[in-house]
Structure prediction request, 178 residues.
Amino acid sequence: MKNIVIVGFMGTGKTAVSKVLASRLKWQRLCIDDMIEWKVGKPISRIFEEDGEVRFRKIESQMVASAAKDKNVVVDAGGGVVIDEQNIRRLKDHGTIFCLTATPDVILERTRACGHRPLLQVEDPLHEIKELLGRRKEYYKRADHVIETSDITPDEAADEILKIMQESESEKRHLIFA
Ligand code: S3P
Prediction:
């Protein structure tokens, strides 16, 4: 089976869903944000603050390139990974990309409690969420499948993803033996 790559805006459930998937499949979960923090040796908020977003994106692309080559992994990609065409191409080489979505209100609710997302540390986060979602809409469309998570649990989202993966596997087998 191909790798499973989870993309989507902040607060759409990527971390929770990728953890469920990795544990069900007994696959390794690669979190691009964690890889960046390990590589640089400081939290993402400090990378943005001290080195800037451009440097962050550069390291993000390096981590994507390395994670995309792995086999039997669930990749939890940060919300901005899709902006770079090359990132998407690399991830699609060995993986199926699922984009998680949620409404702006749900995203606000889910992200409100944690201060580790530098892009949402603004006076009016809901406005910023809508603005960024609008700007990124076209990029998120590059995913192979979209799963709306506003009204479902991480377990239910994982069920949907695994069903799609299994269907595409049996379709492939069918084509081979046809
Ligand atoms: C970002 C999303 C974050 C993290 C960084 C930038 C973005 O990841 O990579 O703060 O540009 O949307 P999560 O989506 O996992 O919060």
Q: What stands out?
A: The mean pLDDT is 95. The longest strand covers residues 95-101. The longest helix spans residues 154-177. The beta strands are 3-8, 28-31, 73-76, 95-101, 145-148.
